[in-house]
Amino acid sequence: MSEEKEMTFEEAMKQLESIVEKLEEGNVPLEDAIAFFQEGMKLSKLCHDKLQHVEKQLEYMLREDGELVPFSPEEA
């Protein structure tokens, strides 16, 4: 049994956009709409978590001498 590859941010966003389009059409049966909504919420959380992770990575930047220093937008 192969382990499922974790979805990338871009893949999750594409699926989320597809779900939103289906729900916006308005002709989705209630049960399907609920399932789409639940899947959309999972994808939304996945995207949020990935963005949070990247944000934490960007809090520090590497100086030329290799030292990690807190990132300050004013210095950029």
Task: Please tag this protein with its features.
76 residues; mainly alpha; 2 strands
Derived structural class: mainly alpha
C-alpha termini separation: 47 Å
Structurally, the number of domains stands at: 1
Q: Are there runs of 5+ residues with pLDDT below 50, and where?
A: none
The radius of gyration is 19 Å
Write a concise synopsis of the structure shown.
This protein has 76 residues and is mostly helical. It has one domain (9-75). Helix content is 61%, strand content 8%.
What is the secondary structure topology, with strand pairs?
Blueprint (H helix, E strand, L loop, with lengths): L8 H17 L4 H29 L1 E3 L5 E3 L6
Antiparallel strand pairs: 1-2
Helix pairs in contact: 1-2
Organism: Geobacillus thermodenitrificans (strain NG80-2)
Function: Bidirectionally degrades single-stranded DNA into large acid-insoluble oligonucleotides, which are then degraded further into small acid-soluble oligonucleotides.
GO cellular component, one term: cytosol
Can you walk through the features of this model?
- By secondary structure, this protein is mainly α.
- The chain has one domain.
- The protein contains two helices and two strands.
- It has helices spanning 9-25, 30-58, and strands spanning 60-62, 68-70.
- It has a two-stranded antiparallel sheet.
- The longest helix is centred in the middle third of the chain and has 29 residues, at 30-58.
- The relative contact order is 0.11.
- The model has no long low-confidence stretch (mean pLDDT 85).
- Heterooligomer composed of large and small subunits.
- Its EC number is 3.1.11.6.
- Belongs to the XseB family.
- It catalyses: Exonucleolytic cleavage in either 5'- to 3'- or 3'- to 5'-direction to yield nucleoside 5'-phosphates.
- Keywords: Cytoplasm, Exonuclease, Hydrolase, Nuclease.
